[in-house]
Amino acid sequence: MERLKVRLNKPEAMIFDMDGTLFKTETLLLPVFHQLFDRLREEKLYEGETPSEELMLSCLGMLLEDIWRKVIPNHGEAVHRRADELLLELELDGLKRLDTELYPRVAETLEQLNRRGVRLFVASNGLEHYVKGVADAHGVLPFFEGLYSAGEYKTATKVDLVKLLMDNHQIGSAWMVGDRSSDVEAGKKNGQTVIGCAYAGFGQGQELAGADVLIRSFEELIALYEEAEEA
Q1: How far is it, in rounded angstroms, from Cα 14 to Cα 49?
Q2: Which of 86, 91, 98 is nearest to 39 (CA)?
Q3: 172-to-91, 109, 160, 224 alpha-carbon distances in Å
Q4: pLDDT at site 205
Q5: What residues make up the domain containing 30?
Q6: How confident is the model at residue 203 (pLDDT cuts 50, 70, 90)?
Q7: What is the SS3 assignment for 80?
Q8: Which of the listed residues 54, 75, 97 is the one where a domain comes to its end?
Q9: What was the pLDDT predicted at 231?
Q10: pLDDT band (50, 70, 90) for residue 204
């Protein structure tokens, strides 16, 4: 792990991003992405080649409306909303059919943190049934006190989503754990410690600038928590 600032305090809660933090999203997204554009072509809503996988992966962590503006910018709101519907349908089906993966030792680490009394949450810019579906499909749903998604709460930014989560659950101190600049911003603007996940590789350049610690594997959270000082 790479320490950027010293002396972390033990948090009462940890708030996790989903894609690129807990879930190895490309194991689901890439096959679904191709299916989605096949369906859009069948429905005469899209013509031409499927956009690149690299482009789609670069959008992970964004709100869906922002993803479609970047991936299919020359199509209108109706096509974008149909893409939302298809994405959710295909993702939920894919969670049943495909061999999708969490990152190594995510389930074991969440279980250990839970045993230590850390309150665990998810804050994701994804759709509600997708976020809950991933956690359920991989057996980690029971570890979480709450799973918050922009799709469910209609928040404009992850800053707003994390604030809502913290207010609703009366959380005073938390570690925001994620892999994108939106996670760093959400943690910092809510006055919390940020743990940057540098193992997914979706972030570009300065994506995790401002994080308090960078971790290279998820299980490093246990050592970080053990070494942190009592608040």
Answers
A1: 41
A2: 86
A3: 34, 22, 16, 19
A4: 57
A5: 26-97
A6: low
A7: helix
A8: 97
A9: 74
A10: low
Distance CA 135, CA 83 (A): 23
Bridge pairing between strands 23-24 and 119-124: unpaired
CA dist 96 and 91 (Å) reads 9
Residues 6+ apart with CB under 8 A from 40: 46, 79, 82, 83, 86
pLDDT of residue 206: 81
The answer to whether the CB of 30 falls within 8 A of the CB of 52 is: no
- Can you say whether residue 52 is alpha, beta or left, with left for phi > 0 and alpha for psi between -120 and 50 degrees? beta
Number of H helices, E strands in the chain: 10, 9
CA of residue 76 relative to chain centroid, distance: 26
- Domain boundary, last residue among 63, 78, 97: 97
Produce one character per residue of 84-114: b if its CB has 16 or more CB atoms within 10 Å, e if not. bebbbebbbebbeeeebebbebbbebbbbbb
Q: What percent of the chain clears pLDDT 90, i.e. is strictly above it? A: 87
Split into its structural domains, the chain has a count of: 2
* 141 and 152 belong to one structural domain: yes
Q: Same structural domain for residues 31 and 9?
A: no
- Return the structure tokens found at 191: 């006055």
